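Fold these two proteins, one after the other.
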Amino acid sequence: MDFSGIGSFGSCLDDFSGKYMSPCSCMYHGVDWSNDFSNGNPRFYATSDGGYPSNIVITMAMTEDGSKFLLELLSSKDSRVSNLIFSRVFEFIFELMIHQFGRYLFQQLIVSVDEIRLQMIMEKLTVAENHIYHASVHKYGNFSVKKLITALKRSPLITYVIKALSNKFEELMTDPTGQYVILECLDVLDSRSNDLLYVRAMEGCLELSRHVRGVVSMNAFIARIKGPRLDQLLNWICDNVRFLAQDPTGNYVVQCVIGLENPAINDRIFSLLEGLYVKLSMAKAGSHLVEQCLRLSGMKRVISEFIGSDQLVFVVKDRYGNYVVQTALKESKKRDARIHASLIVKLEERLDCLRHGYGRNIRTLFKSLQ
């Protein structure tokens, strides 16, 4: 590669912008780009502080002023400039993308170079080691990966990113930083590009749903998934709903699915949960799930189970269950007079037992509804 036409930084500024770009560029005026090349390849040097090997461009990129200066050079949109910078930073592209200041150069470089150099970057980041994963869980690298996803969204090279992320799907979904890279894919890319991530979500759904951080990511994933894979995932959750509903964290995935208000899926869930409503009402997370069922089309199934149970008095006197029964009374009064009357009759049988503890809440509400 011939850089003779580029010359020094100063001449770059003269050739491509006609002036100095900013005060910070003064310190780099006259620095020779070409002297460190041999047969078109950069020669790298160790930094004075003993850091990773570098050349002058890498050194600049790792400083605030230097990064700004290089960004201004790239803004010329001249391929000779972008290709020259690419050649000087390529060997340390991962270090660049996770650096506090270097990441800005990386993010601009990937939208400045051609497809061939983009492919070189992707191979560098994925073939020998999964740098995409390591950058995704890094506080600065995370931004670089998200920018990469946007830059490649219409390119076949996006498959490099998707494969790298899918290989570490569960680790990313349970990482407080990495999860946002997965969600960025769902927000930016189409369902076809994301298909491998959809498959991994179905494969890892059970474990993620039981993880205190994974369940949050899984709910966000469910809210974003598109296309036929959505129905597959929802039906898989239905198949496992009795287990998930009784799990302290998995319960929230069931709540998320019910909140989508898919009539067929919800009817299946409400049916499969029959026989568990009394038990769930007396669990912290479970009580929220049962209240959600009561507010939707599962109301009759829940109240019918209450009416037919000899455990209702324990639900009424429970710290969580009493709120469920209050919701049952309020919702049935608004929506179904017949089942409301049946629940009132059932509660009247044990009204004397509700003078103390949480039962008093039901007794008070009971009287106000009459």
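Now the second one:
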Amino acid sequence: MGRNFLRLPNVSGRSSFAYSIVACSNLPKRRSIVLSFGHIMTENMTLEQLSANKCFEGEQRVYRHRSGTLNCDMTFGVFLPPAALEGKPCPVLFFLSGLTCTHENFIQKSGFQQHAARHNLIVVNPDTSPRGVEIAGQDDAYDFGSGAGFYVDAKKEPWSKHYKMYSYVTQELVDVVNANLPVVPGRRGIFGHSMGGHGALISALKNPGLYQSVSAFAPIANPAECPWGQKAFAGYLGSNPDDWAQWDATHLVSQYESTPQELFIDQGAADNFLAGKQLLPENLLAAADGNDHIQTIFKQREGYDHSYFYIATFVAEHIAYHAALLTPSA
């Protein structure tokens, strides 16, 4: 086993830390990483490449690693544009998927790669919940448990041991990406769909400055007031409405007082979940109208539903929007 010790750059938006890498030369495209964050040590965190496919002169990869936040193995996708494959630092854009999805849906159905390649954006998309854990009832429903982590940090047992998707997305995954990919410090965006749109919105609103751009396809914009959100919040957080509010984008928008934030909200007009009052974008827009610190772009797409056909139609527009904010020359 060969040992290579590297000095990696500090992570923008996080406290300064130093760390070293122990490389396993006998395992192709696999690195065992030991990170030292001040006095905190995360041991045996591995980043294992599971696949790589050439795509629009870039490369679509899938990685697996051990998450200390979720206490399980997690898989995520990474698209490296041509510039990144040449070793040039690029901005990074995170995509959060919706209910029932894994990392595979966005990779295989959206067609985002050609647009990310054009704008030289690295795109990272994680899974939607912890996997491979043993919790009774986690597979009983499509809208709670497996595939439905709702990007919150669970407070209730038994979920609180594993279901901390918010901290995973906004902290651990950001650190893993910054430590292992050629990203530009401080050039980071986030977007998502449905439950993932909710996740993107709250991640940006709860962390001013962490993301320089944010957008959402058909987000669950006011989960404390819709059946999907109420079920998830009660199960993960408990019955206290004050605990729900801090994970609700509409409430966060109404209370937001930090650096001015622009939110790009996209909605299909023929979305059956819009008609079924699961999404409630009108509540978020009303809250934003009363807050000078929040600016919104709202686009309603006539005839489009909640599916990946809708996402594939408009993903180029979203990626161009993020590129314009993350790449000065775009």
